[in-house]
Amino acid sequence: MDFTPSDRLAAEIYFAKARESLRALAALLQPLAPGVTSDAVRTAVTTAVGALDGAAQALDASALDAARTACPFCGSRVMRAATLCGSCWHRLDPSRTS
After folding, report:
1. What is the pTM of this model?
2. Where are the domains of the chain?
3. How confident is the model over 82-96, as a mean pLDDT?
């Protein structure tokens, strides 16, 4: 299946909104219900965000013009022009090729 750059961008926007919704959900879960640890919620949200990242990559992992790319340190999806990873906080070179 061929994806145009605008298709990829639309998918990336959708995934970004889903990630933000999950983060908002995690914030709303504070304080937690009895017996639920914050680590359990954090793990669930991280797993869901990772699944969204995987879906985005599966759309077209080899696209050179994809809006996001994997962080070379932790693998999280970051904007191609990012200078700092939002997950592991490593400094990134925006001129990197992947």
Report:
1. 0.42
2. 5-65, 67-98
3. 86
